[in-house]
């Protein structure tokens, strides 16, 4: 969960940010929602020179493919996302594609999935682009969709030693009907401390013993 202050609260620490950089480097693509793109304006890059070099040595692009989702198509051409890294793709609706076709000309592929954003169509298209491992950065609406549709294979949940009380703060996930309901216990794959943060890894499709 993040806060609602004008300055973005960094919930993690340097070691955990480096761990995330490693996960990004090991991924074929990184996905972020349009709302998070507008609010945070991230570059979404692999920062480590060594990790980028290792990708190239393995025959991969220096940077993973960057993908985003927007139903409205309201994404500014000046966002940092479009101007750093390698290839980008945006998944949207028919109406959104009409807006983005000119806005993102020369910056990203624009793919319409129909009247609504169809996550199945999106994943099929990513597969044709050679994406076998997709890292979903968020935000909460995207997490909710992936979890409620049973599309997530693994959750990395970093618990930071902070108490946030803002009622309107973004959440990891929002109300939805999740597979198995509230009694479904996900399988814990591992737990480790990363500085003052605890990283929990869960397999949402598997049942805890």
Automatic annotation (TrEMBL):
Pathway: Cofactor biosynthesis; riboflavin biosynthesis. Pfam families: RibD_C. Keywords: NADP, Oxidoreductase. One of its GO terms (molecular function) is 5-amino-6-(5-phosphoribosylamino)uracil reductase activity. InterPro entries: DHFR-like_dom_sf, RibDG_C, Riboflavin_Biosynth_HTPR. PANTHER family: 2,5-DIAMINO-6-RIBOSYLAMINO-4(3H)-PYRIMIDINONE 5'-PHOSPHATE REDUCTASE (PTHR38011:SF7), DIHYDROFOLATE REDUCTASE FAMILY PROTEIN (AFU_ORTHOLOGUE AFUA_8G06820) (PTHR38011). This is Deaminase/reductase.
